[in-house]
Design brief:
Rhodanese-like domain-containing protein, GlpE_sulfurtransferase, Rhodanese-like_dom, Rhodanese-like_dom_sf
């Protein structure tokens, strides 16, 4: 499984790279702030939402600390997606968030 730190992801965003971020936290967690532009798909809905995820681009998967995003990465990798787990999750995120 590919892994990236929150700092490395923020550097990509700050450099103007186009990144696809999927936040797998629950709705009440996302209400406390989400990375701008991230798509919210709760972990329990990842398998049933696969047809809504673009397989042609790599995705960065984030949760609160990194465990649920690792599980989501496993599910998506098994289904042919290119994904990277964001280690540390939103607990380590120092970038902008939207509410």
């Amino acid at each position: 499984m590919n892994v990236i730190t929150t700092e490395e992801l923020l550097q990509k965003i700050d450099a103007g790279e186009t990144v696809s971020i999927i936040d797998v936290r629950e709705s009440e967690e996302v209400a406390t702030g989400i990375i701008p532009g991230a798509k919210h798909i709760a972990l329990g809905q990842v398998e049933t939402s696969i047809d809504q995820i673009d397989k042609s681009v790599p995705h960065y998967i984030v949760c609160k600390a990194g465990a649920r995003s690792a599980m989501a990465c496993e599910i998506l990798e098994e289904n042919g997606f290119t994904v990277t787990n964001v280690a540390g999750g939103m607990l380590d995120w120092d970038g902008e968030v939207q509410f």
